[in-house]
């Protein structure tokens, strides 16, 4: 592979020294809150005897994916806010591309599994325990891991094909394929087409599947009791909020030509740092079972 660039310089969110200090403080707090929120959910699900259903089994992996997804970008952004030279080596850059796409894709697949779980629970309640057995749930999560790995390997294969011979300033706060394409010393039309086909198709296809599943679920709720409808709607609304928050920015970033827009970085901040922070809040504030289990667990520990 012909490349002369061995390291990149991340432009970051801003070059203003005062704003960088604010970025350090704000995002350090947000990152700590993200880790704490997702950690509390994971511990609560593992320790609680009342949260043993498949929905919470999948929620555990969603929280794990959120914590890891945020960790792929936030620590670097926080550290670079205090650094004069935001240098990242070629290997570190490629590792970040792989990790960000792996955990981002994992989150997408887990959201689909959670929607499937709600579909079975509401539309096929008599067969729920058979279809969503512990073994089948384990197999589904394993397939999600494998699918995420395949997607990330495809992304890193495309990234490794790019030759870099200067300049080496990435106009972003983390390494991703879209800003890297602008630095490549080659015609990137075909590679961008493959990226859009890969990432864009996963985002759009998954969103369509999720929307169809929620339409079917809502249609099926017409035959349920008022209390059953209220509980099912509460759960589905929580899921739907997470889906909109995550897929909207992803589709905006990964389904268009490699053009840079002023809002790109803020959109990326929203889905790489904002969504992993909001997910624990959404799933706890709108879920009485999680709140009850959390209260019992932490009161017992204290």
UniProtKB/TrEMBL annotation:
Membrane topology, record value: Multi-pass membrane protein
Annotated Gene Ontology cellular component terms: plasma membrane
Subcellular location(s) of the protein: Cell membrane
Main location: membrane
Alphabetical keyword list: Cell membrane, G-protein coupled receptor, Membrane, Olfaction, Receptor, Sensory transduction, Transducer, Transmembrane, Transmembrane helix
Hydrolase keyword on record: no
Coiled-coil intervals: none
Membrane-spanning residues: 22-45, 57-78, 98-116, 136-158, 189-220, 232-254, 266-285
Domain G-protein coupled receptors family 1 profile: 37-283
GO MF term list: G protein-coupled receptor activity; olfactory receptor activity
Similarity section: Belongs to the G-protein coupled receptor 1 family.
UniProt name for this protein: Olfactory receptor
Origin species: Heterocephalus glaber
Gene expressing this chain: LOC101722911
């Amino acid at each position: 592979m012909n490349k002369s660039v061995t390291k990149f310089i991340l432009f970051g969110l801003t070059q203003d020294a005062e704003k960088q200090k604010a970025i350090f403080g704000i995002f350090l707090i947000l990152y700590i809150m993200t880790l704490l929120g997702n950690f509390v959910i994971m511990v609560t699900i593992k320790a609680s005897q009342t949260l043993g259903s498949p929905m919470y089994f999948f929620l555990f992996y969603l929280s794990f994916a959120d914590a890891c997804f945020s960790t792929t970008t936030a620590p670097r952004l926080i550290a670079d806010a205090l650094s004069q030279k935001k240098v990242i080596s070629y290997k570190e850059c490629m590792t970040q591309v792989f990790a960000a796409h792996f955990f981002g894709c994992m989150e997408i697949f887990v959201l689909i599994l959670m929607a499937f779980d709600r579909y079975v629970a509401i539309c096929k309640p008599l067969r729920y325990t058979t279809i969503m057995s512990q073994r089948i749930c384990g197999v589904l999560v394993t397939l999600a891991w494998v699918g995420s790995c395949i997607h990330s390997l495809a992304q890193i294969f495309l990234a490794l094909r790019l030759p870099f011979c200067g300049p080496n300033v990435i106009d972003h706060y983390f390494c991703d394929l879209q800003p890297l394409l602008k630095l490549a010393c080659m015609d990137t039309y075909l590679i961008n087409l493959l990226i859009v086909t890969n990432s864009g198709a996963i985002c759009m296809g998954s969103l369509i599947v999720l929307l169809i599943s929620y339409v079917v679920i809502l249609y099926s709720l017409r035959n349920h009791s008022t209390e059953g409808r209220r509980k099912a709607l509460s759960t589905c609304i929580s899921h739907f909020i997470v889906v909109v928050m995550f897929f909207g920015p992803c589709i905006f970033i990964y389904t268009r030509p490699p053009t840079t827009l002023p809002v790109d970085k803020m959109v990326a901040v929203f889905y790489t740092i904002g969504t992993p922070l909001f997910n624990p809040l959404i799933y706890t504030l709108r879920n009485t079972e999680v709140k009850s289990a959390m209260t019992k667990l932490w009161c017992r520990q204290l």
